[in-house]
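Bumping with the actual sequence this time:
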Amino acid sequence: MDDFATLAVIVGVFLLAGAVKGVVGLGLPTVSLGLLTVAIDLPTAMALLVVPSLVTNLWQAGSGGHAGQILRRIWPFLLLATGTVWLGALALTRVDPRLLSGLLGALLIVYAAAGLTGFRVALTSRQEVWLGPVVGATNGVLTGMTGSFVVPGVMFLQAIGLSRDALIQAMGMLFTLSTLALALALGANGLLTRELGALSGIGLVPALLGMFAGRGIRQRLPEQVFRRVFFSALLALGLYIAGGALTAYG
């Protein structure tokens, strides 16, 4: 892919992903990663999402007024979700990229199916205590392997009964810490170069423009309708990525 085509893909993908985040409050890393992986390899796609994901989630992590409460409650989950990213990232230089792309497709399918069916799990306080570190470690390893932050971490946060504002802030904290850990892990493995960092920075502008546009769309389009469209498209994308990986092995 030549330089102009690469820039066009980056701008288009982050504009769309930013719009999704503006409407539903999440989805920028998931959408951008899924779409970029169709055009380029997975490790490069992971590097490109670093700056837009970090900047757009920092504000979400810092607003809401629940930071202290959230940290006291789920710090083991956040610690493991952050600390194990490097372990998953080791696979990027040791495992066939087609296999990792297939894993990303599977995670998108799971996330989309849960969203379409309204699947929810409610955890008791006792279950939350011991499951938090387990789910956090799993989420961290999968983040390092695929760049996807949501499965099973977001499902855990939805299951522990946080208020809506606290849930949004907790997701922002998870995504911010995961992005920082992913950036460090990619850099340590030689996968986040200065050139890719600059291209990732370019993606920030369309991501912010997309978020602004998405907030306007939110006022005109019922959120539930958009969520159905969003998860349906994500399911199709996951099936396409997973199917491509299986075909490559065939």
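The tokens above came from a reply further down the thread. The chain has 13 helices and no strands.
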